[in-house]
Amino acid sequence: MSLRHAVLGLLSEAPASGYDLLKIFEMSLANVWPATQSQLYGELGKLTDAGLIEVAAEGPRGRKEYRVTEAGLAELRHWIAEVPPNTVPRSDVLLRVFFLGALPADQAVAYLRSLARDAENDLAHLRSLVPHVECQDDNLSVYGRLALEWGLRASELRREWAEWAEEQIRSLNVTPRD
Amino acid sequence: MSLRHAVLGLLSEAPASGYDLLKIFEMSLANVWPATQSQLYGELGKLTDAGLIEVAAEGPRGRKEYRVTEAGLAELRHWIAEVPPNTVPRSDVLLRVFFLGALPADQAVAYLRSLARDAENDLAHLRSLVPHVECQDDNLSVYGRLALEWGLRASELRREWAEWAEEQIRSLNVTPRD
DNA sequence: GCTCGACATGTCTCCACTGGAATGTCGAAG
DNA sequence: CTTCGACATTCCAGTGGAGACATGTCGAGC
Question: Are B97 and A33 inside 8 Å of each other by CB?
Fold first, then answer.
């Protein structure tokens, strides 16, 4: 249900075509709310029908540039401020952790170690994005920086937690059961 | 696709009926992988068809107690160790952060503040769970503790980040643009 | 003048998840 | 002995996302 609001949000910053949006999704929202072209174009159609966006201009190759309407902006604001964020995010990573007991201890440790490595990689990747957003000053960048900071902190947390967890399992396993 | 592995994982600890599983989901997996009864019973049927679990015993009220088969256990281990964790978790909270620019600054600040409050509540809730899992010693509890620790750390992170973000917005807004 | 790659929009099917509802059984308390 | 609440299962309609596929246009460079 949030894809529509992601689209509204992006269009509220600047008019764009479906193709443009696709690019923006790949770049800046890839880590927050990935979307495919089918979803995007479908949503653009529905939003137009609902009167929340409208075609601002047509260009070459059938390009349609969309922009939010007043109603769309109102809906966006309403969603941000008043709709309760929904639900527990599901984590298949954490789910695996729950069942690590089904694996021999050395494999469990290896799994946790690989989580730490993944987190480290993500961290490196996010850090590489920092210079990109640092200099810009549009709304999306300002708030994008907040989101990026979240990502940085979360990746660090994942790494530290994985290292801690690995240590836990190790110590459980080494100590005799007396 | 992970619901089936959650079911396999739980059944690998102990045989259980659909109803039992539902309870377990509500208690220990509620924050990791919530599931409804329709999903659960559906999945139990599919898993049985696939030969990954089997009916171990039938009880009163049509109760069917399931247990994993060898094939099921193998599938579980394979999933944990070898299937790459999938994808970016979507966060509608973070998505809202991206578009906070659509709101007047004071509302943006209020939103961040409410995030901090939510995180605080979650933290309190998770802390209340700590004594529950602390004493037990089965596999699920051991690894459940790891998951719980993750939750604690993540909630703290959310609170701290929200407070930091609020400060960022405030300072941006107060400083003159010269 | 042709071709290739980027631009651009759409359709279709499958699967997971949601939420609701219907149905029936057993045990305990009054 | 009756009734109520916990136990227990099954079905269904609707929605949203994933991913594959189909189609067409323009511009640059050879």
Answer: no
Q: Pick A160 or B136 by higher pLDDT.
A: A160
Decide if B165 contacts A149 (C-beta within 8 A): yes
Q: Output the pLDDT for position B175.
A: 56
Segment among A85-99, A102-116, A157-171, B129-143 with least mean pLDDT = B129-143
Using CA coordinates, name the residue in chain A closest to B30: A88
Q: Which fold has domain B3-82?
A: Arc Repressor Mutant, subunit A (1.10.10)
Q: Nearest nucleotide (C1') to the CA of residue B21?
A: D8
Nucleic acid strand C within 7 Å of B34 CB: yes
CA atoms within 13 A on the CB side of A92: 17
- Asked if A140 and B101 come within 8 Å (Cβ–Cβ), the reply is yes
Contact flag, residue A173 CB and nucleic strand C, below 7 A = no
pLDDT of residue B173: 67
- Rounded to 5°, the CA angle A123-A129-A133 comes to 140
